[in-house]
Amino acid sequence: MAVRTLLKPSAYFDSVTLMLVQREVRQLPGVEEAGVVMGTDANKELLRDAGLLTPEASTARADDLVLVVRAISDDAAAGALTHAETLLVQRRAPTVGGPYRPKTVASAAQMLTGANLALISVPGRFAAGVAKDALVAGLHVMLFSDNVSIEAEIELKRTAAVRGVMVMGPDCGTCILGGAGLGFANRVRRGTVGIVGASGTGIQEVASLVHRGGGGISQAIGTGGRDLNSAVRGLTAMQGLAALAADPGTEVIVVISKPPAPDVASQVLGAVQRLSKPVVVNFIGASVPAAKAMHVALTLEDAAHQAVTLATGQAPRWPHWEALPAQEAGRLASTQKYVRGLYSGGTLCYEALLLLQRYAGPVYSNTPLDPSQALESALRSRGHTVIDMGSDEFTVGRLHPMLDLDLRCQRLAREADDPEVAVILLDVVLGYGAHPDPARELAAAIRQARLRAQAAGRWLPVVVSVCGTDEDPQDYEAQVATLIDAGATVQASNAQAVRLAGLIAEAAGSRGEPHRPMELPAPSAPPTVPEVSSILRLLERPRVINVGLDLFAESLTAQGVEVMAVDWQPPAGGKQKFIDILDKLNA
Amino acid sequence: MTIDEANRRATQAVLESRPVLVGTAPAAEVIAGMHKHLILHAGPPITWARMSGPLRGAVLGGVLYEGLARDDREAQALVERGEVQFAPCHHYRAVGPMAGVTTASMPVYVVENRAFGNRAYSTLNEGYGKVLRYGAYSDDVLQRLRWLRDVCAPVLGKALERSGGLDMKNLIAQQVQMGDEGHNRNKAGSALMARLLAPHLARTSTRSDDLAAVLTYLADNDLAVLNPVMASCKAMMDAAHGIAGSTVVTCMARNGTDFGIRVSGLGDAWFTAPAEVPVGLFFPGFTQDDANPDIGDSTITETAGLGAFAMAAAPAIVKFVGGTPQLAVQSTLEMYEITVTENPAFGIPQLDFRGTPTGIDIRKVVKTGITPRVNTGIAHRRPGIGQVGAGLVRPPLACFEQAVEAFAATLP
After folding, report:
1. Which of A174, A367, A563, B246 could be B264's S-S partner, Cβ–Cβ 3.0 to 4.6 Å?
2. Contact flag B333-A100 (C-beta cutoff 8 Å)
3. Average pLDDT of B374-393?
């Protein structure tokens, strides 16, 4: 056995490219394990877990590319490294003779007539700079990147507000604008329900359920998860609400967010009350004072239910898969007590934390509702645990779990071996930008997990919700069938899946109580109504400059949206000294 | 004033410039501070000890031409005793191709920037083969220089005077539309120059065999207009120099050892790094191993938005950039990423008459890592052999990194 390491200083590649190369290298003859990653701390941790953190690899910095191969012979390892290098060069080869690929947002905006939106998915520490360039070029911004400072977010949003454009994000996973799904987005019917959401998977869950309930989506505007906190003050949410109020295609508006800062909530509700269109509000885990034309929803499923009812005049009927919690619980061994939720969607995870408490009691998490329920390490569960695997500790320098299921499958195997685990709870998010066939990868892991538990004398229920539609590229029905075939119990919504897992835990002896909702103050009048003319042009027809993950540009092209992709590289080759100098010059 | 505003002012000066070729004159008569023991050269400042082969050869030739020594050994001894001073052409409002050696009695073109009143100078192009600019200094080379001084320059000067001056902005605009990029290809521009001067040459009362020789010089030399174009670019870029707070590059030049740049808002400072060896196509019998590191002031054309920056306009020489007109277009498109503005006077037909990318911003170069492209002739690394090929080169990124550092140091 031989391990070989190759370090390429200051060589940036996006994580999709690296994942694809890593997969290909793993399949080479003689290769046992391979890592092709940027040298971030999180990735080095993963290399350590895989037994690949060689002394050389451990010296890598975040901007260095690390290639490590373990193979049956030194020749095989060396060959695999050479092959990996070739693959990386191939993927970077310029389009010889093809059209010019612009290197900056400014030149891309000049090349794409009528460009009005920059979709930015570069690593977090560079993202604000790219967003600033986009604003200077007069574009709206969808900032998919996370790890952007709140100071940068506020500055960007204030600049944008002055110019009458929106900054959707940072950490904005999903938008549906003018019928085009951006980032992670499900393919849904066009209709009359407009969404303003401070959460990516919250938007996806509601949009998918509206579609499956017979309604359709006019627009879905993501704001980023921090938009409604007291520092950012809902700058984007207020723009989104004003735009949907003016959008002729929107008849019902849904507002989704984790509980906002009270004073910001009251302002948003004040704006909501002024609208002439009905609004469904779901501040997950906060109680909203009811008012005329404002409808309060308790779960994402409930929000979709009310929106469809308002939009179509008919209450939707979700398909139900029969669930027999007591029967499932009856097959558990006496040691099996706890729910373990492994989530890829942040808001779905948050909703799970809230709903599960009612049945099961305290739920530990890396993103807990209450600081007393914080896990010491996101890598180790205790009691009832629900983990957001899309949060920073899992995604710095690595792909989001909606795209790369490896970590979740590994974790699933570990949880299945834990004799205290009674039920596994999972989400699967479909749509543009997501993994092309997540059910297939998860199904294999679920099947194996259940077999291992069975071998140890335990019955292991796995409860899954699939966020998606029959029109998604992955095909909702086929994904559900694959999961059921692997022995999973698939529920129609995240809320239903959590309820089932909770009831199983309750039947196995856990006791819980409803989470006490946060009380929000009465609505107050917002200061001004934002200018929406530029936003309405965006909603009519987005023309997109894509900076970052190529798969987003590809999915937009597949949807018939005009896209110009920027051949992006980190500023100043990632050299911090010069990044700082340029910041100083441009201050 | 913000940096962006300062840069707009600087590039506005480039766009408003109106270079006119008004005449010829001995260098010492028009270049302030020029004297017999001063030799101007291309690129940033350099000592004899660090000079490369072609520049050394040209310096010795310059000493011989000025009659300061009888042969090359004496010339070298004179130089080594420190009896000759060296300075960049750029310090004297002049530019010279390749070695760029300019001495007191050499004739120079005089270009006047009618918009701002500043002047710039450049020697007469010697043509092809064994020439001083590539470091050759044999008798026939010196003989040719004396003919340029005694016959060609005075006649051209008279014709220019009669013509009232050649509007170089107009000439460059036309040559760009006719397939020249103004640096490696000047075929159309040289033809235009000959056409515009011919009627005036005919009226200079020159002996017919001398007149025939001057017309033959213009007819045979596709580079005849290169030196006036360079001086025009110098006149344009000098107008943009010295604007406080501007990060626009006003000079890029190489001496065969170092590549140097100057920046509008950073005064007289040079930012230098070792020059790269150009990669290109070689004349029969020569290879990449014969190539000298990058040399010459002709990068003033790129600095002003011509040369490689206007590559899209010159499909005839796309072999240098990989062979297809599409790649030539990509070369120009890439340069828009690092420039402040476009020069509407120089419209590129292949880009729907989009103006040439103008005003290199050191911030954009450092941010994108895209260094300016340069089209260039390639000198043999030994003196006197001459041009061995032509190709492409880029300045070292370090020049621009040093410049942004220096610029940041000027801020509070």
Report:
1. B246
2. yes
3. 89
